[in-house]
Design brief:
alpha/beta; DNA polymerase, domain 1; Rossmann fold; Arc Repressor Mutant, subunit A; nine-stranded mixed β-sheet; three-stranded antiparallel β-sheet; 44% helix
Length: 364
Amino acid sequence: MKNKYWIAFSSIEQIDSNFILKLYEHFGDIETAFNTSLNDLKNIEGLSIKKAENFIKYRDKIDIDRTFTEIETRGINFLTFEDENYPKMLKQISNPPAILYYKGKLFECNLEKTLAVVGSRRASSNGKDDLRKILSGLAGTDICIVSGLASGIDTVAHTTAIENNLKTIGVIASGFDFTYPASNKTLYQNIENGYGAIISEYYPTFEPVKFRFPQRNRIVSGLSYGTLVCEASLKSGALITANLTLEQGRELMCIPGAISNPNTQGIYKLLKNGAAIVTETDDILNTLNWEVKNPNNEIGDQLTLPMLTPDEENIYKYLEIEEKSVDELLTLTKLKLDDLLMNLTTMELKGIIKQNGGDRYKKV
């Protein structure tokens, strides 16, 4: 059984997918590649001698059957590079994963319409709201949202997908023994239990150490036909993913934001260099030349405001552009404090505004 050799290879932390695939392509057979000698490895052009020596050293300590059984008993699925079901978009990149471990329903996701979404872990509330609004416009379609299950924009991308009946794929930077960040434990479970799939190139025991996050990014963009960036500083993982997107020949799109926000500096750099600008859902569909199935025709109805009283209309118009404090609204609306607070409470119950930190309010 060839699969156990792919898994045995992937259980060695001292090598990577590039090393594994170099051996596989040289020998044409994964079992032969795994059982090769150091002398044979030294004859492979461009192969690191140090990595070859490390491989031999750690290979000889592996119980091949045990590493395979560990995967089976944990209920982890996998695809090897030679599997016919291996995602075709991922196979086209320059350094694809040798193996993909996954949980959930990967093949219920439409891998022909995959959109990567990346951005800042410390995204502003406005950035998160903009992303929710744009992704909500895809509600009920067959598009699959791909992201990295990190905090911030990644989390918003996955949760918005779930809320809008979209499938989503989370690509993690560790093995399945770890949930990072721990605050996303419920989100992990929701994705695994029917809303999509979580995938990793790492054996279950591999920890989420720093260097694995940039490695993970090539899979996020590699799985996808295009990448949407929402807030990214000039030195960020999101910008790394954006550059990988271009290297992989995929479409790059950006949501603009306030120029005073440091997290938009990377965005405007990308836009100046030719990335497509996204201010509404149709911009994504037009950039990727996608026609969507089963569009949610109720989106427009959902965005229709409920009936407002004159006082509520007065308040709402001042929240159209940006959030306001109670003191600001008192000055602008000329309402008495008691009347203002009563109307704000009513409008919150109607779901058209929400409190945003202390006494500040914003439209939903």
